[in-house]
């Protein structure tokens, strides 16, 4: 499936205000500082990376998909900012510099299949942070994965086609599976639609597991919050936000 299709619907269905909330969360830990060296893991189409660059930071966007990075490059050109973009697997990043901040948002870490892969990501981040550098990320909560997602359905339509999102409980503990189906106009065949599908698996862990793995991989001053850092964690919080420093 073309990532142009996925990106079109992703940007359409995503509440745009959520990007402002992510940026405000970053600003809590960068307030009063300019020209920071920031890496955004799983940068996708580059929306957050571009906004950070607009604030005067030097931003490197890393994503596993070169197609997504192509869309991030187009966004960078349209917004007249400069980003460094690199294809990379966040489980096995080589040292790319001593970054002041590394971010990983939009529950991207939940695509890791087990605790070992989560630890690999944290080790990769640690290798790329300068001493005292800040690591910011979010994940789905247990409540979101086990009580909200199973049975969830969403349908979106516009002039270019339709998008169906269905979620089911996964086989692994604290996991969820998403079926995404896209119906888009067939090029050269007006009135006919092509069907494209995507299948996503996500998994999360109890808070103490994330905290333990962070400590084991060289992080300290671990703070966990909800609602983009403005609330304490509750049993029904949909997403957890982590802030920590390289020891």
From TrEMBL:
One annotated GO molecular function: methyltransferase activity
Upper taxonomic lineage: Bacteria, Bacillati, Bacillota, Bacilli, Lactobacillales
Pfam families: Methyltransf_25 (PF13649)
Protein name: Methyltransferase domain-containing protein
Biological process annotations from GO: methylation
Keywords in alphabetical order: Methyltransferase, Transferase
Positions of the Methyltransferase domain: 38-133
